[in-house]
UniProtKB/TrEMBL annotation:
Name of protein: Cystathionine beta-lyase
E.C. code: 4.4.1.8
A biological process from GO: L-cysteine catabolic process to pyruvate
Higher taxonomy: Bacteria, Pseudomonadati, Pseudomonadota, Alphaproteobacteria, Acetobacterales
One Gene Ontology molecular-function label: pyridoxal phosphate binding
Record key words, sorted: Lyase, Pyridoxal phosphate
Record NCBIfam families: cysta_beta_ly_B
Cofactor requirements of the protein: pyridoxal 5'-phosphate
Modified residues (N6-(pyridoxal phosphate)lysine): K213
UniProt key word Lyase: yes
Amino acid sequence: MADQDDATLGFATRMSHHGRAGARVHGFVNPPVHRGSTVLFPDCESRKAAGKQRYEQVLTYGTAGGPTHHMLEDMIAEIEGGTRALIVGTGLAAVMVPLLAYLKAGDHCLMPDSVYGPARNLADGLMAGFRIETTYYDPLVDEAATRALIRPNTKVVYTESPGSHTFEVQDIPAIARAAHAAGAKVLMDNTWGFHNFQPFAHGVDVSIQALTKYAGGHSDILLGSVAVNTPEDWSIVKGAASQLGQFASPDDCWLCLRGLRTLPVRLKAQAENGLEVARWLEGRPEVLRLLHPALPSHPQHALYARDFAGACSLFGVVLQPRYSDADAEAVVDALSLFGIGASWGGYESLALPTAPSITRTATDPHDFGGPIIRLHIGLEDTADLIADLAQALDRLPR
């Protein structure tokens, strides 16, 4: 094969070959796990020289990361089209680090009303305690509406597209134009889009991902990433992570690297499975509508088609308004092939009634029309998943 850094190679090829010693190198296919806390130097001068390179991939102490971390960081930057990436211990840590990196006491943050629940908890809790004010905004704002929300002290415009549980697709380029015109940074939770949304090509400054999901792919690791595209942003987020003592297990990093090798085929298969199940659900009389951006029926499907190269397997199902939250829970309880769990992105299917947990302060929490069930579609045979959903829906009162 030609140069492994050749950007013309396809995504699946890059995921198979990058972050490895090479196809023509004698030895094991996968790199080893590097664990360690203490780093030794041959002399004091070498230690001083390493210490001056504060945020480069230089071994100084275990918390700065080692070869296993650095390989994964390079792979994530590669996936998102950025220049550098930082690996932290959880997806929530990946949310926290850049928020605290760019915001200080007296600053203002804009956050979409559809944001991931723990991010809202962070804004209302720790950030509020630090005297950082957060305003929740309608995720469907356009450029003019975003400009109207920005204050002189607004330093961060946070985005998440699609939104957690309700899957609103945001106009990221429009929001970014308004934010940058006011000197604010644009942060985005890109976990749903992953490879299918290139954040830096759409105006994002910092991209956040829960690597726990698709990157790991097997529901057995906790990791997060923060990717950037400029040296200035890298210095800010890496510096904050270092001061906060953020670190990720090298064993989890190694498992994530292994997960990335099969990511392209898993993501493609699960997206196709998800669409097949979603289209079937659209025809069920118990269903009011689907919250799946890749379906033409989705209100922001045009934005999705413009900005995304593909979908993932997580979407929402809105039941008819005659049903209650208890009915939604009964459907989930009746499923046999779907686990009941809050994560997603693994090989297994999941179902979760979400309407009771949706918090809205800027938009109407009841405007979805009925109770919502969030589904993640795994790698099972879709005929089996559809049969399982059918028997569960059949139990609802007519």
